[in-house]
Structures are given as structure tokens and as C-alpha cells.
TrEMBL record:
GO terms for biological process: protein stabilization. This is Periplasmic chaperone for outer membrane proteins Skp. InterPro entries: Chaperone_Skp, Skp_dom_sf. One of its GO terms (molecular function) is unfolded protein binding. Residues 1-21 form the signal peptide.
Length: 187
């Protein structure tokens, strides 16, 4: 029985030796760098600025108007009648609520657009990594930052190759960076 076990173990090791002898090809890249420097990220940034800048400016103007009115109420509060003071206070409270609602809604829409853009860019980068891995026969390609890699030889750094491939895929496939400004949210 013991002889059979050792013979079986020897047979397994003979057949497993070629598997262990296969070359391990490792690639490491900087996901954060690629995600911020790729053409898709730059297009997203520009599109978001174009899409949201007018509304951001309007909200900032409304905030400045609120501050101006608050200062005005403080300065002239003693000179007003109690009724006029109460009217101004009520009007100010309404304006403040309106501003807060608009600002909150604006921030929520911006966050949703950013989250969607990050997801799209991440999928683009994953596709680029898979293309490079298959084309150049990498065994493993990983994000050095999230994998906790503190040091790696420059020969395993594929960051530029991933960036180039992501740009190529973005230019050829037209992966959407942001939903249309007129798109209705799904319920």
C-alpha cells in the first residue's frame, strides 16, 4: 500500500513538473494614474465642466446673494419695524431653503455623473488590461497600489502600455463617458 502511494506521488510529480516550469509573466500598473490620465478621463472632465458649470455658477450667485441679504438684515435690523423685520426674515428663510435644495440636488447629480464616469473608465481599463494580458501572454497583471506592492522592478511596469491601450480602445469603441444631459434617470 505504501509503495503504491509513493509510486502515485512520483507519477503526479513527474506530470506536474512541466506546469511548475512554465514561466510566470507578471505585470504591474498604476490604476489611479491610468484612470486620471487616459483620454476618456480627460473627456469626462471636460464634459462635466461643460454640463455643470452654468448651474454651479448660478448656485454660487445665489449663495452670494444670501450672504449679502444676511449682512443687510444685520445692519438694518434695528431700524426696521418688527413686521418688516419678520417679513425679511421669512423671505430670507425661504431663499435659504431654496438655495439648499438646489445645492443638494446639484451635488447629487454631479456625484451620480462622477460615479457613472468612474465605472465606465474602470471597465475601459479592465478591458485594456485584458487585451494586453492576452496579447503579450501575461500570467498576471495587477494594480500595484491596491495589491500593496511596495517595490517592483521597472521591467514589470505596464502602466504606459495600459494607458496606451485604454486610449486606443476609447478612440475606437466610443465608450460613453457620461450619460446625456437630457437622459432621464431610471426608476
Amino acid at each position: 500500500m505504501v509503495k503504491c502511494f509513493f509510486l502515485a506521488l512520483a507519477g503526479v510529480m513527474l506530470f506536474a513538473a512541466p506546469v511548475f516550469a512554465a514561466e510566470l509573466k507578471l505585470g504591474i500598473f498604476n490604476m489611479q494614474y491610468v484612470a486620471t490620465q487616459c483620454d476618456a478621463a480627460k473627456a469626462v472632465q471636460k464634459k462635466m465642466q461643460d454640463q455643470f458649470s452654468a448651474e454651479k455658477t448660478a448656485i454660487e450667485k445665489q449663495e452670494a446673494e444670501l450672504k449679502r441679504r444676511a449682512e443687510e438684515m444685520q445692519k438694518s435690523g434695528d431700524k426696521m419695524t418688527p413686521e418688516a423685520r419678520e417679513d425679511k426674515r421669512t423671505q430670507f428663510i425661504r431663499m435659504k431653503r431654496d438655495y439648499e435644495d438646489k445645492a443638494r440636488s446639484f451635488l447629487r447629480r454631479v456625484e451620480q455623473a462622477e460615479m457613472k464616469a468612474r465605472q465606465d473608465i474602470t471597465l475601459l481599463i479592465v478591458k485594456a488590461v485584458q487585451e494586453i494580458g492576452n496579447a503579450k501572454s501575461y500570467t498576471v497583471i495587477m494594480d500595484g497600489m491596491s495589491a500593496g506592492v511596495l517595490h517592483a522592478d521597472k521591467s514589470v511596469d505596464v502602466t504606459q502600455a495600459v494607458l496606451d491601450e485604454a486610449n486606443k480602445i476609447y478612440k475606437t469603441s466610443g465608450i460613453p463617458a457620461l450619460p446625456s444631459a437630457n437622459a432621464k434617470p431610471k426608476k
